[in-house]
């Protein structure tokens, strides 16, 4: 709080939202002004302005020895000002987990390349906004059946912004904005020898968040994908991961709701092992995951 001392002020101009009022007796004005000024922060602050005329009068009054009250004005409310912490130190790109995540997403994930089974932990879980949880076996089966890395030969995540989670030190977050061209034969697999044939569609993905969590043995324990952060970019109509690809190549998919839930149940339960899966059977999902979530497929989080 800054103190504004008025020596002797026969007339003091108090301005608030463009309205000016004068007071012949500053002693009568001061208590009201003090109360209003102390209770205000920004929206209700007063600007105290003494004109040259008033300044001259103040000097004249001071020469007579008359006393004048001290008026306090709120220059800024420091106590309520937002505290801005320092920007976290950037992560060293040579950090082993950053390097491992970068290698994984480009050459081991099963999405942008064939899956490297050895990199996945036995209690691995995949989860996206509408797909998952998938355990290691079901995830590898699903990604191998799709064969997206063959159907889109130049498929790239164009990953950037790698950082470590401050609350989960073994979790690496990053953004992808994938690109590629749907030209690879025989196309994207649907199971039982059925394929969506290539049509030359060009992918321009929306930016989406991925995360890779490693266990104590540097195996991938958890992979999350598909969380679009700007649905107005790219040509995937706001979708990420495989759903974004399907939108671009023209593969029809039901909207999130009863029809999609039925389609997911059919592929994961009724037709299990014959087509890409949307989620694993509850009893086959690692306990560490089911302890935190009971949602399957496009269910609401719980």
Task: Using brief descriptors, characterize the structure shown.
6-stranded mixed β-sheet; 8 helices; 23% strand
Averaging pLDDT over every residue, what do you get?
82
Q: Any idea what the shape is?
A: globular
**Helicity, as a percent range:** 25-40%
Largest sheet: 6 strands, mixed
- What percent strand? 15-25%
Number of strands: 15
Runs in which pLDDT lies below 50 for 5 or more consecutive residues are 1-54, 67-73
Rounded to the nearest angstrom, the distance between the terminal CA atoms is 48 Å
Number of continuous helical runs: 8
| Computed structural class | alpha+beta
Order of helices and strands: EEEHEHEHEEHHEEEEEEEEHHH
What strand order characterises the main sheet?
7-6-15-14-9-8
Rounded to an integer, what's the Rg over CA atoms? Answer: 32 Å
What does this structure look like?
It is a single chain. The chain is an alpha+beta fold and 302 residues long. 26% of the residues lie in helices and 23% in strands. The strands form five sheets. The protein has a six-stranded mixed sheet. A three-stranded antiparallel sheet has the order 3-2-4, with helices on one face. A two-stranded antiparallel sheet has the order 1-5. A hairpin with a 2-residue loop joins strand 11 (188-191) and strand 12 (194-196). The radius of gyration is 32 Å and the shape is globular. The model is unreliable at 1-54 and 67-73 (pLDDT under 50).
Task: Describe the SSE topology.
Elements (H helix, E strand, L loop, with lengths): L1 E3 L7 E5 L2 E5 L2 H14 L7 E3 L2 H12 L7 E3 L22 H12 L12 E8 L6 E2 H11 L1 H4 L8 E5 L6 E6 L2 E3 L6 E4 L2 E3 L5 E3 L3 E7 L5 E9 L12 H9 L8 H13 L16 H4 L12
Parallel strand pairs: 6-15
Antiparallel strand pairs: 1-5, 2-3, 2-4, 6-7, 8-9, 9-14, 10-13, 11-12, 14-15
């Amino acid at each position: 709080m800054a103190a504004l001392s008025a020596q002797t002020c026969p007339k003091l101009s108090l301005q608030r939202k463009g309205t000016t009022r004068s007071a012949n007796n500053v002693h009568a004005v001061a208590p009201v002004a003090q109360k209003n000024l102390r209770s205000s922060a920004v929206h209700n602050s007063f600007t105290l302005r003494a004109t040259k005329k008033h300044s001259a009068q103040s000097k004249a009054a001071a020469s007579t020895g008359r006393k004048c009250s001290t008026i306090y004005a709120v220059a800024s409310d420091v106590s309520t000002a937002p505290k801005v912490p320092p920007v976290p130190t950037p992560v060293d790109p040579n950090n082993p987990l950053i390097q491992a995540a970068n290698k994984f997403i480009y050459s081991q994930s099963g999405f942008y390349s064939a899956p490297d089974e050895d990199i996945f932990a036995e209690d691995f879980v995949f989860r996206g906004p509408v797909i998952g949880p998938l355990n290691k076996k079901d995830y590898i089966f699903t990604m191998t059946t799709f064969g997206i890395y063959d159907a889109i030969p130049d498929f790239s995540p164009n990953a950037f912004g790698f950082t470590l989670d401050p609350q989960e030190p073994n979790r690496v977050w990053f953004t992808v904005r994938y690109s590629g061209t749907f030209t690879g034969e025989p196309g994207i697999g649907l199971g039982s020898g059925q394929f969506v044939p290539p049509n030359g569609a060009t992918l321009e993905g929306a930016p989406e968040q991925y995360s890779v969590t490693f266990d104590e043995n540097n195996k991938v324990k958890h992979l999350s994908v598909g969380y679009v952060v700007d649905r107005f970019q790219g040509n995937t109509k706001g979708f990420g991961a495989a759903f974004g690809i399907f939108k671009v190549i023209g593969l029809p998919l039901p909207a999130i709701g009863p029809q999609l839930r039925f389609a997911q149940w059919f592929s994961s339960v009724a037709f299990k092992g014959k087509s890409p899966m949307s989620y694993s059977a509850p009893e086959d999902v690692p306990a560490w995951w089911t302890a935190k979530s009971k949602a399957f497929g496009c269910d609401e989080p719980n």
